[in-house]
Amino acid sequence: MNIIIGQYVPVQSVIHRMDPRSKLIAVFAFVIIVFIANNWISYAVLVAITCVAILLSKVPLRFIYKGLRPILFIIVLTFLLNAFFTRSGHELFGYGWFQLTTGGLRQAALISIRLLMIVISTTLLTLTSTPIDITDGLEMLLGPLKKIRFPVHEFALMMSISLRFIPTLMEETEKIMKAQTARGVEFSSGPLVQRVKAILPLLIPLFISAFRRAEDLAMAMEARGYRGDEGRTKLRVFHWGLSDSSLLVIIFLLIPVLWVLRS
Amino acid sequence: MDIIIKNLTHVYQPNSPFERVAFQDITMSITSGSFLTIIGHTGSGKSSLLQHLNGLLKPTRGEVIVGDKVLVAGSKTKDLKALRQKVGMVFQYPEHQLFEETVEKDIMFGPINFGVSTEEARRRARKALKLVHLAESVLDKSPFDLSGGQMRRVAIAGVLATEPEVLILDEPTAGLDPRGHREIMELFVRLNKQEGLTVIMVTHNMDDAALYSDEIMVMDHGRMVVKDRPEKVFQDVGYMARLGLGLPQTMQFLHSLSEKTEEDFIASLFSIDETAAHVAEHLLKERDRS
Q1: By the 8 A CB rule, do A244 and A18 touch?
Q2: A176 CA to chain B: closest CA distance, Å?
């Protein structure tokens, strides 16, 4: 089972070595910038940049495909919806109410590419940075919000703890499912009503164990001297390098470039 | 209900980069009414093997025959539910599966799933509770208000209430205090000897393995290396040590005693009384001789 979109792939590459902060900003900006593009040339620029990023990251393509798989269905669906519900240009194919137009095809292709770019760039972020790096980076980037009493540190901690416990909870789910199956519960066959009912004997033990785990974890953290954000130092210190600055410059240069290419 | 396992192999996530062989080529039979203990260190495939006996895992190769039910690799077995009713399974930390509002409802959960009427399930709940030595007054309590040891008993009662013919136990005494440990083990022995249940247990406790089982099966790296009576299994000390397994305390004591006194006290004895009698006899003989 693979829930997390794009799990960290440990290879040595320029992008892996970059500061997670620059990657976070770049991806965030890129996702917005993608919307500036509205014709083939501007899209070509975006696709080129994404391809270069993939090449630089040295992540095998199958991992990127694996990250895309869960949302491939959504992309196909948007393609079809756009293709059949946009009516511009001349008609290619028509059957009563059903119409396929050149404008529709163009629109569908562009929108799908846009979606793909967004997903690939975010997948690339999670593929090239560990979850801990991402949360640490996010914590530092959101640092200024502490001024308005936003609990940034707690937020980041919550995020990393939830990520850490996904596999544990999956294991636990499997264990409890087996135990209840042995007591005659059927999770994957039988009428729908019964299958829905079967969720309760799974969820209650799961919740109880999650709470117990949370309590144990809190206790263990306190026993090891955790006392929140105040005065806490970092094990890993980020290094902002030339590559980080260049990445941001490239991304922000994209805005005027795309604006000019835009029609 | 006899259990026969033929050339059984299980592979987790076959044909993927995560492929892992749990155990391979295991052939054995378990006679109805016997007490079999499986030992072997973590990751030797014990738990995976157990889960084949009630169809929670399907064979990758080979077959499992439980009574008149046959599980063969590559074919769907119908009516696994009937098999699961006959083969009760107590998982590690079974108290983690409790979920109902009252103890009674939780014990009745299994029987009702297997199609027993509510009255019958209620009757069975009382009977099972008696078997695990809990007072009827806990029936209306929430299982989450009980102590750890009591919760474990309720969970075991929940499995016994389905009236299985085979009882599978995966480290049933893990985390219990010495008294809870002894009482739970005595319960299983009683079920085995008096009610005629076939008991198959996985444990890391060599004392339990030696003391209670008719036969011990030793697993190492996914293979069955020994299956014999406890006296035979613990005879080859060097071999057990190489497998990373110890000896029962009584035998450890006899070995240390022999080393210290440079005399041969070694015998395959597992209960403390027997061991004491054996040592005393030896010492008396010694005194007579001198």
Answers
A1: yes
A2: 6
Q: Is A20 contained in some domain?
A: yes
Per the CB < 8 Å rule, is B81 touching A204? no
> CB distance B159–A182 less than 8 Å?
yes
- B91–A186 CB contact, under 8 Å: no
Q: Which residues of B touch A208 (CB under 8 A)?
A: 96, 99, 144
pLDDT tens by residue, chain A, 263 residues: 344 445 788 888 888 888 999 999 999 999 999 888 888 888 898 999 999 999 998 888 888 888 788 888 888 998 888 888 777 777 777 776 677 788 888 888 888 999 999 988 988 888 888 888 888 898 889 888 888 888 888 888 888 888 888 888 998 999 999 999 999 888 877 778 888 888 889 999 999 999 999 999 999 999 998 888 777 888 878 888 899 999 999 999 988 888 888 77
Residues A43 and A117 in one domain: yes
pTM value is 0.76
- ipTM of this complex: 0.87
Residue A230 lies in a domain: no
Q: Does residue A63 sit within a domain?
A: yes
**DSSP string covering B174-198:** TT--HHHHHHHHHHHHHHHHTS--E
Smallest Cα distance from A180 to chain B, Å: 7
Q: How many domains does chain B have?
A: 1
Return the C-alpha torsion angle A95, A98, A99, A105, nearest 10.
Answer: -130
In a domain, A154, yes or no: yes
* Interface contact B81-A178, CB threshold 8 A: no
What angle, 0 to 180 degrees and rounded to 10, lies between the N-to-C axes of helices A61-85 and A102-128?
Answer: 150
Is A200 within 8 Å of chain B by CB?
yes
